[in-house]
Amino acid sequence: MTPTHTTDGRASRVLVLNSGSSSVKYQLLDMRDRSRLATGLVERIGEETSRLVHTPSAGGGAPRERTGRIADHEQALKAAAEELAADGLGLDSPELAAIGHRVVHGGLRFSEPTVITDEVLQEIERLVPVAPLHNPANITGIRTAQALRPDLPQVAVFDTAFHTTMPEHAARYAIDVETADAHRIRRYGFHGTSHAYVSRRTAELLGRPVADVNVIVLHLGNGASASAVAGGRCVETSMGLTPLEGLVMGTRSGDVDPAVTFHLKRVAGMSVDEIDDLLNKRSGLVGLCGDNDMREIRRRVEEGDERAALAFDVYVHRLKKYIGAYSAVLGRVDAVVFTAGVGENSAPVREAAIAGLEGFGLAVDPDRNAVRSGEPRLISPDDARVAVAVVPTDEELEIAGQTFALVHN
Ligand SMILES: Nc1ncnc2c1ncn2[C@@H]1O[C@H](COP(=O)(O)OP(=O)(O)O)[C@@H](O)[C@H]1O
Ligand SMILES: CC(=O)OP(=O)(O)O
Ligand SMILES: [Mg+2]
């Protein structure tokens, strides 16, 4: 039998759950060497076309797929647990040290990974109105995991945690102070686990101490956000009270004049819930051109589709505005970094976002930009004043590391 405990005899495996609005990503890691024992994705939860793809670790065989309706997040996690069990990695294993959960909104209270108690869970529940697409899924993930392993520590790692260092002048909206404070209205920021991990990896790529580098991180997935990180600390980020503000996203509008919402209510007669649905689920790339997948949008652009071209241009224009704004916030920028699904894979987005920014010392080398790789890499020319880089994010590894450190120390 291969040893599965740390040298001091304690369990060394961590299961990470990243529950999104309609998907669950999971990974089982062995923290002795940070290796992945299995990874999986359940997508289109609640639809007839749900799909689970389970990938055993290297040497463990080919990916396995299940299709057909998976009704909710509880069923999704149970299906994932069955797949793990089929590989001899069931949740009943004594080697499992903890389960780490990505929790999107932690409000002001949680700036560190936290062992989940009933009281912590209540606080995550209280924050549902400010993360309506995310916190409910996170809560179901936690409850289901607790039911499967009531004896095991469950740890929450919050998307908001990394942003709690933002200075007050960046976190505060310019609205009446008493009203804002009474309702805890401020910029919280999200994707913090990714912004933290990627900014650290960028310093490594540059071969400089984290404390010495200023980085703009562009996390471009389904949700998308930018952050300005000075010497390892977040000083500004584009998402706000909720994950709706900022960049153009797959289905979310990002920045709009707040008066658009009054107008839609008063003049277009929409209810608040309808406006919420419009801005969160029917806007962004999907609202502009009907597609939210950047691969499909690029395919349409290449075919001369004008709506897809407009969606692409609006997306890239917003990115440019944030690169400019965060350059001013940081004063000196050492690197602009692209990450997550679109940032890691879409050379056209990277090229277009940096085009014309020579005055900021920014340029992309076309050959370097065209390289497809899972490794952190520079895509700027050697003589560039500011580095432009692609650094793949790894929220699951970061969550596993923080979870293990918390339960093991
Ligand atoms: N090869 C690719 N080219 C362009 N975009 C891609 C590619 N692969 C993935 N994407 C984009 O990445 C998005 C998903 O990013 P990801 O970071 O996995 O999102 P999330 O974690 O928010 O679900 C997809 O919607 C798609 O637009
Ligand atoms: C906070 C957020 O937008 O997360 P995701 O990109 O997973 O939707
Ligand atoms: Mg993501």
Automatic annotation (TrEMBL):
Source species: Streptomyces clavifer
Name of the featured protein: Acetate kinase
Binding site for substrate: 102
Binding residues annotated for Mg(2+), in chain numbering: 18, 395
Site entry: Transition state stabilizer: 191, 252
Function: Catalyzes the formation of acetyl phosphate from acetate and ATP. Can also catalyze the reverse reaction.
Essential cofactor(s): Mg(2+); Mn(2+)
Residues of the active site: 159 (proton donor/acceptor)
Binding site for ATP: 25, 219-223, 293-295, 341-345
EC number: 2.7.2.1
Single Gene Ontology MF annotation: acetate kinase activity
Keyword Magnesium on entry: yes
Catalytic activity entry: acetate + ATP = acetyl phosphate + ADP
Co-factor binding details: Mg(2+). Can also accept Mn(2+).
